[in-house]
Structures are given as C-alpha cells and as structure tokens.
Design a protein that fits this description.
Layout: H1 2-33, H2 44-60, H3 62-81, H4 88-112
C-alpha cells in the first residue's frame, strides 16, 4: 500500500511539473486560437452585459419556438387522422422515439436514486 502511495505521489509530482512548464504556453495558445470569441475589454461588467444579452435573447426566441411546437403538434394530429395511410417506416420511427423517451426516463430515475437499482429481483 505504501508503494502505491509513493507511485501516486510521484505521478502527481510529474503532472504538476508538466503543468507548471507547459500550462502557460497552452493557455496562451488557447486564447490565441479562440481570440474571436473574446469580448474587449474582458471585465466583470462585460460578462454581466453578455449574460443579460443571452437571457433576453433566449426570452425573445420563445414565440418562434412556441409556433414551431404548434406546427409539430398539428403535423402529429394530421398523421393521427390519416393513420390508415401511415407507412411502416413512419410507425417504426415513432416507436423508436417512444422507446428512446422511455429509456431516458428510466436513466433519469436511476440517476435520481443515486445509481441504485431498487425493486428489481435478479
């Protein structure tokens, strides 16, 4: 156990040295590569302004998304009215979508319980 601890400490020391020698260069390279995303001047006030712009831009996009939702719902209603003309491919896609929704629901329940499986007898 002591040898594992010494190995871990040695690797941590090597990683720390690597970051201290190459970290600054990586940081500068990253900033230079993404320079077009940086707002001038880079201050807290500018960050506050950008966060407000993001919030209100998203709020302004709600009516468009609302209309798109109702168009999709109308399309589903149309498909349901004419379900006799439904193709096998469309039914398969709908079934896969329903299965995916159910799988995400189950995964969310498992994550919500702290990754424990309860109520299942194996």
């Amino acid at each position: 156990m002591a040898s594992k601890l010494a190995q871990l400490q040695s690797k941590a020391c090597q990683a720390s040295k690597f970051v201290s020698t190459h970290g600054g260069a990586y940081y500068k390279q990253l900033l230079e590569k993404n320079k077009h995303y940086i707002q001038e001047p880079p201050t807290a006030e500018k960050c506050d302004l950008l966060s407000k712009q993001l919030l209100y831009t998203r709020l302004a996009s709600i009516p468009g998304r609302y209309e798109a939702f109702w168009k999709e719902l109308d399309y589903v209603k149309h498909l349901w009215k004419h379900r006799q003309e439904l193709k096998v491919e469309d039914a398969g896609i709908a079934a896969l979508f329903g299965l995916e929704c159910f799988a995400w629901y189950c995964a969310g329940e498992i994550v919500g319980r702290g990754f424990t499986f309860t109520g299942y007898y194996v």
